[in-house]
Design a protein that fits this description.
single chain, 322 residues, D-Maltodextrin-Binding Protein, domain 2, 2 domains, 10-stranded mixed beta sheet
Length: 322
């Protein structure tokens, strides 16, 4: 029986002389595929990470943006790449947890055909409202939404994305009904809030912070177990009585599943050296990103929680993309 291209790559990967490859790896530039457009949180995180990762790896790291189909196009290009350690994926929470939950016709199995080297960084989500809405607290927002069911609007960066599901999680936990207004990206969604076209937005702290600091929008709650060091005055949802509202945009480094174990170990070691750099910590802080501090067991548990959470939200809200 003829093998598919994907099966053939897996076989070839298993036949590669791992010891000799690891000894010389990497002897040419490494491609870091970002499956999202330039300028977004994942791309920004990748461009901060790449120089430190390159230094630790001892080889040039070239970022390649391959956007399209909610990160599917770029992700699939890595899934189908030769598993030799020279094509890496810098994926997001959408890549690893959201898309498998909402896309019924995904052409690959994310958790079987990709191997996660490790989590890189994250930015918690924060719920913000347009300043003229006139609510000062989360309690006031929930009360207003219950008084006007289906009338308040909330923005997202696109149907079926991480922000859409995070907002549906809030609606479920707060037991409110709000109207979804999808935009083509986070930037336009923020503009929709600033122009008073929508009322509510749950978004990354890193991209929302400047508008919060100028008072153009008001932050009401942090969707993370702890407060953000950038917004210490903003309480978490847990502090405000909704502990189930936890969401963030995060990124991780992955390779095709058949990549030799010695090369994966080399990538893991380089990643750990890169993220341990004080200069890298400072660079992340400047753009509102935070470091994960997980061991392998904690990373696996985090991925399971994320996958289970967003699968449950997608099912409850009937969110599915063909």
């Amino acid at each position: 029986m003829a093998l598919t291209r994907r099966e053939l790559l897996a076989v070839l990967g298993s036949m590669l002389p791992a010891a000799s490859l690891a000894a010389s790896y990497p002897d040419r530039p490494v491609r870091l595929v970002v499956p999202l457009a330039p300028g977004g949180p994942a791309d920004t995180a990748a461009r901060v990470f790449a120089p430190y990762f390159s230094l630790a790896l001892g080889q040039s790291v070239i970022i390649e943006n391959r956007a399209g189909a909610s990160s599917v196009i770029g992700t699939e290009s890595v899934v189908r790449a030769m598993p030799d350690g020279y094509t890496l994926l810098f994926g997001s929470s959408s890549t690893f947890a959201i898309n498998p939950a909402v896309m019924k016709n995904l052409r690959f199995e994310t958790h079987r055909e990709l191997k996660l080297v490790g989590l890189v960084s994250y930015t918690p989500h924060v719920l913000v409202v347009r300043a003229p809405l006139g609510v000062a607290t989360l309690e006031e927002l929930i009360r207003l939404a219950k008084e006007r069911p289906g009338k308040l609007t909330y923005a997202s960066s696109g149907t079926g994305g991480a922000i859409h599901l995070a907002s549906e999680l809030f609606k479920h936990e707060a037991q409110v009904d709000m109207l979804h207004v999808p935009y083509r990206g986070g930037g336009p969604a923020v503009m929709g809030l600033l122009s008073n076209d929508v009322d509510v937005f749950i978004n990354d702290v890193s991209t929302t912070l400047p508008s919060i600091q100028t008072g153009k929008i008001k932050a009401l709650a942090m969707a993370w177990p702890t407060r953000s060091p950038l917004l210490t005055e903003v309480a978490t949802f847990a502090e405000l009585g909704l502990p189930g509202v936890v969401s963030s945009s995060w990124s991780g480094l992955a390779v095709p599943a058949a990549t030799p174990i010695d090369i994966v170990a080399r990538l893991d070691a380089a990643m750990r050296r890169a993220v341990a750099s004080p200069e890298y910590h400072a660079a992340l802080k400047r753009i509102g990103l935070e470091l994960f501090d997980f061991n392998a067991e904690q990373t696996a548990a985090f991925i399971r929680r994320e996958t289970d959470r967003w699968s449950a939200v997608a099912k409850s809200a009937n969110i599915q993309i063909d």
